[in-house]
Write a structure and sequence with these properties.
single chain, alpha+beta, four-stranded mixed beta sheet, 21 strands, disordered N terminus
Length: 546
């Protein structure tokens, strides 16, 4: 393989959404730290909510990623050093112009039912996502670097013209639109995982439940899915690198209340609690920090609110800017979250661009916020703030989300005289509502699945499956297109800075704080890998003797 490290953008890191990892009771751990006696190594980990879907091509949120990463594997995997390495691909050849990638599928790669993983399974999976008849593919833009992928999804060219071809059972050839420095990071992303072509064609609903048709090719298999309660994984003996896998079973218990999860951890029923699949209770963060058992690692991720620009008064730029500047982020991070987070004053996290520690606007600039509000009210034709249409902050169930929303609700009332309602809902319902555009202000977070500003900004193209704001800007898109084809790193940097300046001026996204990975775990839990991208990998994990 031609030196993968040279094509990796330096400083892989993330953002993320939120979690609680776990294990089992003291009584049942005995010598294997988890599970029933005779089960071998068992790790019990809560998920913050029911995953929205467990189909690689249809994921919309990070909790699904944290499960799928255990049961599927792509051409590459992000290793424990944060670098992409060969996974289902045993060899990777890159053309001199960096436009053509030839992947050799390893001969010992099997599906969990014993069938061989083939190059055709990858071609089928990618084209399934790009098929314009498949509407629910929120992260389809992960495939847009592939030649004709965007045009195929738009229905402008045949799916057969997409630049991914299985030349034979073990050879996959991928042609890109332009050189992409981070492409081997993308091939480790769930959207680019394979799916079993034969089973998918026979049973299009194969992914809705655990069963014989839910076949996978990763370190673990999906053995049980008790919806809203528990997801159980078992070691996959057909996995090509199964000798590395030490856990025999993983139980993801779906625990929406983080206080309940933390109580389970304290009683010995859970082994790990906190990010990335849940959140620590706010009070627990301080106590764990005092005890010296809190881990807090920087991530390239932003916690933010999405503003639906199709809803009045959020269709007005000055109203959006008034809302953004009226928030005191320093107060939120120091008095509410208290996990080492810092105010976010940009869309691209400082871990990707250090310049963004200063950002594009002043935190809590109330005087400026009032000026923008007056302009917006006048432009919309209202006489004063009392005539503005009602607004609501929508967020998924979580103590921290609720507390942040309440604080911002108070700030907007006290600083601007604007009343907003709060709407709490179960995670999957929250995501579906935003996907349908049925929201005004929605809590979300951006995970730098790839630590490259272009990748982050691409999410805000009008046709991106991730752009719930419905915002679009021709100049912004033109700059992204220009950056894609720039081979001069300094020039590319300036282009992308200009693009970020546009979106920060338009403010369809209201950044609040920069994420930290905050968690704690029992002493006997070893080698759980929380990637720099903010996701959990259990391939190397083990629970040692107590």
């Amino acid at each position: 393989m031609k030196n993968i490290k040279k094509v990796v953008f330096q400083g892989l890191i993330v953002f993320v959404l939120i979690v609680v990892l776990s294990a089992c009771s003291d009584e049942s751990k005995n010598s294997n730290s988890g599970g029933d006696e005779g089960d071998g190594q068992v790790l019990n980990m809560p998920l913050g909510s029911e995953p929205a879907e467990l189909h690689p091509g249809q994921i919309s949120e990070n909790l699904s990623v944290d499960v799928l990463t255990q049961v599927f594997e792509g051409l590459t995997r992000i290793n424990q050093d944060g670098e992409p390495e060969e996974a289902i691909a045993s060899e990777i050849d890159i053309s001199d112009d960096k436009l053509v990638y030839t992947f050799t599928i390893r001969e010992d790669a099997n599906w969990s039912n014993g069938d061989p993983v083939t190059a055709e399974d990858f071609e089928y999976a990618w084209k399934h996502v790009l098929d314009p008849d498949n509407a629910h593919t929120p992260k389809v833009d992960r495939l847009y670097p592939v030649k004709n992928a965007f045009e195929a999804k738009a229905g402008e060219v045949s799916i057969d013209e997409v630049g991914v071809v299985a030349e034979d059972e073990n050879t996959l050839v991928v042609e890109l639109e332009s050189p992409v420095e981070y492409f081997l990071q993308l091939t480790a992303n769930p959207v680019l995982f394979p799916i079993h072509k034969g089973i998918s064609e026979e049973n299009p609903d194969w992914f809705l439940d655990a069963g014989e048709d839910y076949v996978s090719n990763g370190p673990f298999t999906l053995s049980e899915w008790d919806h809203q309660s528990k997801i159980e994984l078992e070691k996959n003996d057909e996995y090509w690198d199964s000798d590395t896998v030490q856990l025999d079973k993983v139980n993801f218990f779906i625990v929406e209340d983080n206080n309940t999860a933390f109580n389970m951890y304290q009683s010995g029923d859970l082994d790990y609690v906190g990010d990335p699949t849940g959140t620590l209770p706010l009070e627990a963060v301080s106590s764990l920090d005092s005890e010296g058992t809190l881990n807090s690692d920087e991530k390239a991720g932003i916690y933010y609110y999405l503003l639906n620009v199709d809803k009045e008064p959020l269709n007005n730029k000055n109203i959006r800017k008034a809302l953004a500047l009226a928030v005191n982020r320093e107060e939120i991070t120091t008095s509410i979250i208290k996990g080492g987070e810092t105010p976010a004053l940009s869309l691209v996290a400082p871990a990707v661009w250090s310049e963004n520690e200063e950002g594009y606007f002043k935190d809590g600039d109330i005087d400026a916020a009032k000026e923008y509000l007056e302009k917006g009210i006048e432009e919309l034709g209202y006489s004063d703030v009392s005539e503005l249409p009602s607004m609501a902050i929508q967020y998924n169930t979580s103590e921290s989300h609720a507390t942040v929303a309440q604080a911002i609700q108070d700030m907007w009332k006290n600083n601007l005289g604007i009343d907003v309602e709060l709407e709490n809902m179960e995670f999957a319902v929250h995501i579906d509502a935003m996907d349908e555009g049925d929201f005004q202000i929605g809590r979300f977070g951006q995970s730098a699945e790839v630590a490259d500003p272009l990748f982050i900004l691409e999410a805000y193209r009008q046709n991106s499956g991730y752009n719930f704001t419905n915002w679009s800007n021709e100049e912004f898109i033109s700059l992204l297109d220009e950056a894609k084809f720039s081979i001069d790193s300094d020039e590319r940097y300036e282009i992308l800075r200009e693009a970020e300046e546009i979106i920060m001026d338009e403010m369809p996204v209201l950044p609040i704080y920069v994420y930290k990975t905050v968690y704690t775990h029992k002493d006997y839990v070893e080698n759980i890998d929380i990637t720099d991208l903010g996701f959990v990998q259990l391939k190397w994990a083990n629970v040692s003797d107590k």
